[in-house]
Amino acid sequence: MDKTLQIKNYPVNSWLSSADVYKAGITFEYVMEKYGFKREDILRLAGNESTIGTSPKAVAAASEACKSSNFYDEPQSEELISLLEAKFAEEIDMSQLAITVGNGMDRVIEQCLNLFTQRGDSIINFSPSFVFYDFAASRLGLKIFDLGRDENFYPNLNDIETKINDYQAESNSEIKIIFLCTPNNPTGTITDIEEIENLAKICEQKNIILFVDHAYIEFTDRNKYDARNIINKYPNMIIGYTFSKAYGLAGYRVGYGLMHKELQNTYLKYNTPFLCAKPSLKAAKAALEDTEHFNLIIENNNSEKPKLSKALEELGFKVSPSEANFLLVDTANSRYHNSEELLEDMLSKGIILRKAHSISDTAMRITIGTVAENQRLIEALAIQT
Ligand SMILES: Cc1ncc(COP(=O)(O)O)c(C=O)c1O
Fold this sequence. Notes:
By secondary structure, this protein is α/β, with parallel strands linked by helices. The protein is built from 14 helices and 13 strands.
């Protein structure tokens, strides 16, 4: 078939020619095929997922929902939203706030981009950070103004107002959304609430949306760090949360956004009806109610993090402080020259890790596993092959 003719016949947006397909981390299937491991013998510490597993109550709720999934569920996931709003109302005043659900926080991010931007506009990020912001923005033909982070991976927030003014004047492009990930993926860095508040004030003056990504907030002190404690003052703020990490539901694909009610009305106009699968919504509801399982995941993380961190340091890795469920390590003084070497060695032992190549070729991100899993990792790292 004539390929030129084929491509010519599609009215593809021109800026997509340079876009890439999203590349996820190494899969179980890859390790099974390449290294001959059985699936149950592979340890995946690559995706910041919970290795403790899904709440059995969530699994039961999803299975039950499968039986009636010949019918659509509620168009805007109302039942889950009510439960989430009630949970938030235990902590903050929800009278002016609302929640929207998406299939994964990714979808909430994407929907905000669709809602507030048009081709040629810009977003701000603080890299190294979650790569999806740039990915999703690029495919909409948006520009990215990267303010970066300092040597401790703290976002560069100084003089931000001047930087925004200069950028907008020079690029002739309007900044519409700032993405601030805290705790940040892949560094684990937390941003002080006072800094978030300063940024929110600037965003309000400049009519910019501040999207605070709280994918890992459940692993921290929420009273201290959760932007939900200040959102009532800032109508331009949206906070993204997910069931993928602390609730152990990554594969179910449920995330949500907290925003002001007046904004939710517009947001819902863009919502695809029946966005989340019915079994996923029921699983999320059950997981939210299963506090015992949730606490298990959090407690495991909090008790294992310092132990794993210390063991990795003893093996010569430089470990960055983390407020999340993963550690960023540098192979600096270890026996590995770079993260590729470390990745390959671990893969040959049935352990999947994730290179943090957006930082350097010696940076590696390691999800914190259970006691036994972390022990297996440390033993594997200690074996010279
Ligand atoms: C910082 C951050 N935000 C958002 C997401 C996406 O979450 P979800 O699985 O809900 O789409 C991830 C997933 O890894 C993440 O690390």
